[in-house]
Amino acid sequence: MTSLAQTLARFATGPAPRDEDLARIVTLSLFDWAAVGLAGRDEPVARAALRLAGTEPGGATLFGGGGAAPRAAALANGAVSHALDYDDTHFGHIGHPSVAVMPAALALAETRGASGGDLLAALGYGLETACRIGDWLGRAHYEAGFHQTGTSGAFGAAVAAGRLIGLDAAGMEAALALTATRAAGLKSQFGTMGKPLNAGFAAEVGVTCALLAEAGAGSAAAALEGPQGFGPTHAGEARDAAFEDLGTRWVFPAVSYKFHACCHGLHAMLEALRELTPGLETDTVEALEVTTHPRWLKVCNQPSPETGLGAKFSYRVTAAMALAGVDTAALESYSAETCQRPDIQALRDRVQVRTDEGLSDTEAHLRLRLSDGAERTARYDLLTDARPEETAPRLRAKAEALLGAEGAGALWQAVEDLPGAGDVSGLAARMGGG
Q: Fewer CB within 10 Å: C terminus or N terminus of the chain?
């Protein structure tokens, strides 16, 4: 009987993907990941992870400069890129795939002299694997307290790392099976430095297990799905449907990007507001009714926050910011000063938050009432497929808000050059601050 590790290994060692949508989304995700990592390199958890990586010298570039051994670089860069919690999310994966997979892939691509095309192919397979395993584990795994960014992300990191060092199917199977005994990550770390470190640990595990497989290490064949395998021991749902179309359809392109520097629970509302605000005069706003899934009330419904951090978890304040034309993509917009602005407070007090269990947790419905009695409505679902040509300019605008126009432009060009590049040195130079 074919084990899950064997099935995934055969898939992951296939030819380079030829799906144009996948290729473009992977490239855009790489740009977004690098931009967010560069913006987060001075966060406290980032400084700690980079300091540790500096004790293990090597040739893999670190965000902000310097080099480290691949495992150390993967851990540090994973933590750095998740430090702002501004990276992509995949709702099938139930987590953040890029911050686990990309640091592992880039560390080995750079130190093994891989081409840009090799890197992008490895990322395609690694990100897809992370999403498929996240779906296989299901929401029960997440609700039991596990953080899929750290758990299923580690398997995706192992696949990406394994492709870049040239593992065959048997070696890839061993890497995945070994990952099953090391993948970890707990939701109890949310709100602490442990959350971004979960991403770093996943990236490091992927590199380590791929290198162990290359060195000849083996593992139990049914390490993922066996009676004492990863799934059964980690509250996995064993959703076999997650793999039914593996190899014939790519699910990673359904990834959702953060275009606002706040809790993802607020993003559906903010995207819906983009339909209502063009040409709107804020002094004509009488009331805004926001309807969302009830699960978000415990997460991001601070009614009258007084700090920038609190604003990132407030329907009322972020809605007021959007109505007032404040850039919700810019980190500096979330501040005590913004919370205290009289116009923001006046708009905030006109926002009402309601719930509807019939909505998915990716949806928001809005009703805007104006002083002349007119009403406008809008709705948005984060699962709405976005076309790459629509997504690209928004990701560039986000990067410019984080890095400035010059830094964002240089990074964009380095990523765009990858498909024809003989190595990844251009991207590594930009990551290092060059």
A: N
